[in-house]
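Model: You mentioned two targets. I'll fold them one after the other.
Researcher: Yes, keep them separate.
Model: Target one:
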Amino acid sequence: MDVFRSERHKKVDYRIAHFIFWPLVIVFVAQAFWQPHIDHWRCKRIASELEQQYGLVVRFGDPSEFFVPPLKAQKENPDIGFSIGHADEHSALTALKGIRAALHMYPKELIKKYLSAVFVTGKIIIRGVEGGGTYFNSWIYIAALEEFEQIGTVLYEQNFHHELSSLFLKKNNFPKIRWHLANPPGFKYLPSKIDVIHAASEKLRRDPKEASLWFENGFVSDYGMSSMENDFNVYAALAMTHPDVLRNLMEQYSRIKAKSWILVDFYSSLAPELGAYLASVGLTERPGLSQVHQK
C-alpha cells in the first residue's frame, strides 16, 4: 500500500516539476529574445528626452548610422588613428542613464551653448589606446562596454563630466598660469600629444600605492600628470561625481586645495548654478568669487 502511494506521489511531483519548469524555460527564452528590443526602446526614449530638453543630437548603437554633418558617415578615421565600435543596447542603456544624470547637473542654456551632440559607442580607440570617452568640437563620445556594467551608471557620469570639462576649457579663458603655479616647482606635463594619449593606457599607469605622492604634488590621479587638460578633467569629474572625496583631499593637501579653488572659480564663471552646487557640497565657502585670498 505504501509503495503504491509513493509511486503516485512521484508522478504528482513530476507533473508539478514539469508545470513549473517549462513555463520558466519559456519565460527565459522570451526574455532573452525580447530584452534587446526592450533595451533599444528604452535607449530611444532617453535619447529623445535629452534631445528635447537640451537641443542635442543623441545617438547610440552603430556609429555608421548616427553621424550628422559636418562629419562623414564613417566609424573609422585612419588619418588620426581614431576608431569607434558598435555599442550593444544594454550597455548603451546604462551609459545613457549615466549621461542623463550628469546632464541634469548643468543649466540647460549652458549645455546648449557648449554641446551639440552626444554619441554612445562601443570601443573607442585613439592611436592604439582604448579610452572611455573623447570629444570633437562640440561633440562628446562615450564608450559603453559590457565590462563596465559592474561599475554602473556612475562611471558614465564621470566620463561625461570629464569630456564636457574639456569643452569648457577649450572655449573659455582658463587661468592656466594659476593652474601651473599650483604644481610643484619644475614640474612639466608630457611633451607631446602622443605621449599624452598613451598615458591613458592601463599598462603605463603608476602603482596606486604611490597615490600619496600624487596628492602631495597636487594630482588627484596619475593620469592628471600627463597634461594640464587631463589634470583639469579629473578634478572636474571628481568634483561633480564624488565631491566628498575631493573635499577630504583638499583638507589634507594644499596643492589640491589650490587647484580645486581654481576649478570652483572657473565653473562659477560659467554659470551661477555651478558655483552654488560646488558651495553646497563643501568645495568653497563663497561661490563665484576668487578663492585666492580665502583662508
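Model: Target two:
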Amino acid sequence: MQTKRDDVGARPFRPTCLLLYEVIEPVDHERPGVVRRQYRSVVGYLWPVRDRCNDRRDLSGQESTGSPIKFLEGMKSVNLFPSRNVSNIVPSVARALLGLVDDRGGSPERLCRGLGFSYEDLRNQNLLLSHNQVRELILRCEKQLRESALGLSVGARQTPVSLGVAGLAMLTCETYGDAIAYAVDHQVAAGAMLDHLVDIRGREVCIDVSPRLFDLQIEAFLVDEAMASLVGISRCVVGVDFKPLGVDLSRPRPENEEPYRRFFRCPVRFNAGRDRLTFDSDWLNVRLAGYDRITCKLVQTQLNTLLKRPVGRLDLVESVVNRIRFDMGARATQGELANLVNISDRTMRRRLSRQSISYTQLRDATRFERARDLLANSAMTVAQVAELVGYSDARAFRRAFKRWTGILPAAFRERQG
C-alpha cells in the first residue's frame, strides 16, 4: 500500500498497528515491510495490513473437552469477561448522557438517585463506574426522554474534550491518522465501553466496534453513541466536511432513519450483521491545524502522565477473545486467528498453554457468553442464535450448549423466564 503526503506536506501516515495491544518495539520505519518481533504482552502491529480470512470452514463439528462454565469460573485471574459490578469504566458516556438530559431541561440529579453516585460526583476526576451503573442510567434516560436515537444524539454532541485527557492529547497529533491511532490506543482511558478495532484495506479504513460485555438492552445505544462520537469528534479535528463512506449497523431498522442519514451524511445500512464505520484513507494524512512538532510532543508527553493506566490492560487471552467476538460467525481456525493477531500458530498455542488455556476453550467460552445473552434477551430462534455464534448446524449448537450447561437451549431460555 502506498502512503501519500497531503497538500501541506505532513509526513505520510503509516498504519502501524491494531492498537488493541501493548508493544515494546515500534515498526521499523526504515523497512516498512518488516515488523520487529519483541513484544511485552501481545502482538499489535499490523504492517503490511493483512486481508481478513475468507475461509468459512465449519468448525462446529470440533467437540471441545472441558466445560466453559467451569472454565469461566477459573478465569478470574486473566479476566476473560469483565465483571458487570466492578467499577472500572471512566464515565465519559455517563457525563455526555446527563449533559444532554440537562440541556433538555431534565433532572440529572433525579436520574442518578439510587445508583451509587450523584450528578455532582461526575466532576470527580477519579470517579469510576461499573457496567451495571452505566446500564441502569442509560435505561432510565431512555425511559424519560423516549428518543429512539438517543445514542446518536449523545455521540453527536461530543468533542475531543469529551474524552478528557486522551481527547486533548489527540489535538497534539500531527495528522488525523495519528489522532485516531492515539484515541484507539487509549480507548479505555477515554471511557469507551465498546472495543474499537481499526483495519486499513487499501483505500478504505474500517473501524469496527464490539461489546466487551454482551448486553442487548443497551447495545444499540452504545453502538450508536460510539459511531456518532467517532464522526463528531473527527469533524472537530479535521473539519465539518468529514463524512464516512458508509456506516453498517447490526441493530434493526428504526422507524425513522432520517436522523442517522442526516448526521452521518452517507449510506447507513441496518441489520448489517456488524457495526462498522468506513472512511476514505486519504483522511489519515490530513494535517491537524496548529501542529508544532516540538511543542505538541512536549504537551502530549505531559498529558500522558495524567492518563490513568487502563484497568485490565489487554493480554494475549483478551486479544484472542476480542478477535473471536469481532467476527464470531467466521469460525476461524486457530491458525487463522493467530495470523490475525500477527503471531504464529505455534507461538499462540505455547503462550496460551502457559496459562492452562486452549484456543478451543476461549472460542467456546466466547460463544457461550454470546449465546446465553441472545437466548435470554432476544426472540431469535435457536437456529438463528447458532448461526450468530459460529455454528452452521443448529443440532451441533444444541449438543455444544448441553455440554456447556447440562441443558438444551430451549430449556435454558424457559428458565430465564
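Researcher: Noted. Anything on target two?
Model: The CA atoms of residues 193 and 212 lie 7 Å apart.
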